[in-house]
Write a structure and sequence with these properties.
This protein is mostly helical and 190 residues long. It contains nine helices and no strands. Helix 3 runs antiparallel to helix 4 and helix 7 crosses helix 9.
């Protein structure tokens, strides 16, 4: 999180330059943020929609850079907010299906092929459990857990109080635990 914060002032300067028509500044902002925005859209809406959401986010930045207010938060938070707006328009059309990015897997290398299979199955079970959450709860899990945002940043993106983020995340974790326990029990029985 510290790396993102240290670049916040640089990002604000880049947005000012984008307002003046500086293509290099836009390219730098795109390079710095497109992967995170794409991953967020992918996790919320799935692969069929993620690229469109990213395109809409950066087109909005290009067309309306004057709407960014540094007093309201970091550029990254602003971009997530735009992504959320476009994503919510598409979410019902996407059938509430999402696919989690393969890069979110734990980096440890298993000792055996059996360990590898067990780990892959566990990751798949967690991924499916997250996908099955209602969008309100899935969104806080994606932002706070997968994207490692603090509650304040997530609340800013979601346009809700910090307490709401906390309660949604608490409820989402409970739902995930229930789903994973039920899945584990079914596997043991089956």
């Amino acid at each position: 999180m510290k790396a993102m914060e240290s670049g916040a002032g640089d990002d604000a300067r880049l947005v000012r330059r984008v307002r003046q028509g500086d293509e290099d500044a836009f390219t730098a902002l795109f390079a710095a943020h497109h992967a995170a925005i794409h991953r967020y859209a992918l996790q919320m809406c799935g692969p069929a929609t993620a690229d469109d959401v990213v395109q809409e986010v950066f087109l909005a930045l290009l067309r309306q850079a004057d709407r960014y207010d540094p007093a309201r938060g970091a550029v990254r938070t602003y971009l997530y907010g735009i992504a959320r707006h476009h994503m919510l328009k598409r979410l019902p059309a996407a059938g509430l299906e999402s696919a989690l990015d393969e890069d979110d897997e734990v980096a440890a290398v298993p000792a055996t092929a059996l360990d590898d299979l067990s780990r892959a199955e566990a990751i798949d079970q967690v991924r499916q459990a997250v996908q099955s959450l209602p969008p309100t709860y899935r969104e806080v899990v994606v932002l706070c857990e997968l994207h490692e945002m603090d509650y304040e940043t997530a609340a800013s993106i979601l346009e809700c109080p910090i307490g709401t983020v906390r309660s949604r995340l608490h409820r989402a974790r409970g739902l995930l635990m229930t789903k994973l326990v039920a899945t584990r029990r079914a596997l043991v029985r089956g």
